[in-house]
Specification:
The chain has 643 residues and is α+β, with helices and mostly antiparallel strands. It is built from 19 helices and 36 strands. Strands 7, 8, 9, 11, 12, 13, 15 and 16 form an eight-stranded antiparallel sheet that branches.
């Protein structure tokens, strides 16, 4: 059964709630104050089944909204998810201020279909009714409710006159509404939160996309809390699942009433992120005042309401009737996605001044040049899904776009994101070629640029540091600011093609280890000879370096090279030994162990070690500690056990 959400709109006391009750038999005014005062204060709900012209059954969910100007914010919480509108105008009063504001809101929210209902037809004579009809038709001309294609029906909720015609037209118009996508990512903006005895926490809302099933795990945005669907109802009846376009009540486990509020959204876990910034296309109403850059406004999207700062792209002021790309910086984070419609109201006095659509709910912090902004927003507005993906990958530069982020960026399912990434890999999309590095997409142009960047950085480093064998791999990535997955792919390809070589964690050009000048090569030999000939009675390093022809900086780099190649070994802050001397020491320890009595652990103390090696205590203690670290010996009290 096709589900369609119908919303009412119109001035206070024009008969919206009475109309819904006459259609459905349900009084949408649920609050005691509403019944006492005879006006709608908050949104109310009802439902009705009707046949379509082709015999198909339609399930209509009605959202009845308040008409008083003081409750427009409540009206906006209900009208955000509707498929068609009943614009209600009382025949005895005609068009009033909230008629105009509600009508503007419906247009700004891009409501495509509706019916104009002239209520209280019994309160006027036929001639007056005709005059009101002409006035209304003129008001609606050129809009989505233009009388040439959208019906205008006069009714009386008191006598029942005109309701057969209204139901027939309602069935016809509702049948023309495109069904919402039940396979999309589910989103339920919350409009009511309450506790039901025996069940616990219950929320209601209009399921604007996707499907929610019993036992599903969902995430509450922007709070980030996880909940489980214990049970659900659709239009007041128990069900195993709710699909897009249905009024839905969910019994939730894992959350209290105090943790939830109108304006929050339920959606799949680990998919979306709440945001404080959205890039949008904003239309300012002709009757509004000019909107200045950095102005504060109220923003409404579905059931959410918050304050936002307006940042205009390319100008300091948005003129009435004009449309412009705008970034809205929200005071409170919210879950908003591309193509979501929103309403903007003036900060004070609070009146509706405009609205538009979200283009990007994941804007980059860095500023783009104006031509790049215009091109990107143009693609987000009119481009195909493939073109929008290519533009989003391209703007990420050499960091790339993780495939897991595509659902939130484009408002598509994970499965659709995986297919789209596979289709886009190494294929031309909107003039751009996309490549996949592990689970990250990057444009071919950026990948080539990043590859050249890596080689150039290695060349620069080696030219500036001829005595250093190479640049640390992570340091290289940090300098080039390349995403880790893309950097790894570049390193694989460049080493496989022998354009770069890896020595442990060091990256260098092929055949370009350390290149020493003659005096540097001579100094290297002097240092090595000084330590190799000294055995364990090594000289002080600074004394050896002081006798070299090269400067101190180059001398230290030569020592670093010898240490890196393990020709020299530094065993303490002040002592450096030649590797051959330490190898001989290991042999001496092995011989000493072999001479020890059989069956007993071979032990040696400092005095015996000094006697065996011929070194002073200055060398003996650091050498024994070195042997402990190398697991040649293990200290026990004042002795060492030779392992």
């Amino acid at each position: 059964m096709k589900s369609v959400i119908v919303g009412t709109a119109g001035h206070i006391d024009h008969g919206k709630t009475a109309l819904v009750k006459a259609l459905t038999g349900i009084d949408a005014d649920r609050l005691e104050e509403e019944k006492r005062r005879g006006i709608t204060i908050d949104i109310g709900f009802a439902h009705l089944e009707l046949p379509a012209p082709n015999g198909e059954k339609l399930r209509l969910g009605f959202v009845d909204v308040p008409g008083h100007e003081r409750f427009v914010r409540n009206m906006l919480a209900g009208v955000g998810g509707i498929d068609l509108v009943l614009l209600v105008i009382a025949a005895d009063e005609g068009i009033k201020p909230q008629t105009r504001e509600h009508f503007d809101i419906c247009r700004l929210l891009s409501v495509r279909r509706g019916i104009t209902v002239l209520t209280k037809a019994d309160a006027v004579d036929a001639e007056t009714l005709d005059v009101v009809r002409l006035e209304v038709e003129e008001f609606l001309r050129g809009s989505f409710l233009d009388p040439t294609h959208a019906p205008v029906v006069a009714v009386s909720s008191l006598t029942g006159a005109g309701f057969d015609d209204l139901k027939r037209e309602l069935g016809r118009v509702a049948s023309e509404v495109a069904a919402r996508d039940a396979n999309a990512l589910a989103r339920l903006p919350i409009d009511r939160v309450f506790t039901m005895k025996g069940f616990g926490t219950v929320v209601t809302g209009t399921l604007v996309a996707g499907t929610i099933r019993k036992e599903d795990e969902l995430e509450v945005f922007p709070a980030g809390k996880r909940v489980r669907v214990r049970g659900l109802q659709v239009h007041g009846e128990r069900a195993d699942q709710a699909v897009a376009g249905q009024r839905t009540a969910l019994n939730l486990a894992g959350v209290t009433v105090e943790e939830l509020a109108r304006g929050m959204v339920l959606a799949p876990t680990e998919t979306f992120r709440a945001t404080n910034r959205v890039d949008t296309r904003l239309l300012l109403l002709p009757a509004a005042k000019p909107l200045k850059d950095r102005a504060r406004v109220h923003i409404h999207a579905y059931t959410m309401e918050t304050i936002a700062e307006v940042r205009l792209f390319g100008s300091r002021e948005l003129r009435p009737g004009d449309e412009q790309w705008v970034q809205l910086r929200l005071d409170n984070p919210a879950l908003l996605l591309p193509d979501d419609r929103f309403i903007v109201r003036q900060f004070s006095p609070v009146v509706t001044i405009g609205g538009g659509a979200v283009l990007d709910a994941s804007p980059l912090r860095r500023k783009l040049a104006q031509p790049d902004v215009a091109r990107f927003f143009s693609i987000m507005t009119t481009g195909t899904l493939e073109e929008r993906l290519a533009a989003r990958v391209e703007r990420r530069g050499r960091v790339g776009l993780p495939i897991q982020d595509i659902p939130a960026e484009l408002n598509i399912t994970r499965e659709a994101a995986t297919r789209l990434a596979a289709q886009s890999r190494a294929s031309s999309q909107g003039g751009e070629v996309l490549m996949q590095c592990d689970q990250v997409l990057v444009s071919a142009r950026e990948l080539m640029y990043a590859t050249n960047m890596v080689r150039n950085e290695v060349e620069r480093f080696q030219a500036a540091n001829p005595l250093v064998p190479g640049i640390n791999r992570e340091d290289l990535r940090s300098r080039t600011k390349i995403g880790p997955e893309i950097f790894l792919q570049i390193m694989r390809e460049m080493t496989a093609a022998r354009k770069l070589e890896l020595s442990g964690d060091l990256v260098h050009l092929p055949g370009r280890g350390v290149v020493l000048k003659d005096e540097e090569a001579d100094s290297k030999k002097i240092i090595e000879q000084a330590f190799s000939s000294a055995g364990l009675q090594v000289p002080a390093l600074q004394h050896v370096l002081a006798g070299l022809k090269v400067d101190k900086s180059r001398a230290q780099k030569i020592v670093t090279l010898l240490l890196r190649d393990k020709v020299l070994v530094k065993i303490s802050e002040d002592l450096v030994f030649h590797q051959s001397a330490l190898t001989n020491l290991r042999s001496q320890m092995a011989v000493y162990k072999a001479k020890s009595p059989a069956g007993a652990p071979a032990k040696i103390d400092v005095a015996k070690f000094k006697e065996m090696t011929g070194v002073s205590r200055k060398y003996a203690i650091p050498l024994l500690e070195y042997l402990d670290r190398e697991r040649v010996t293990r200290r026990v009290g004042d002795e060492r056990i030779i392992l």
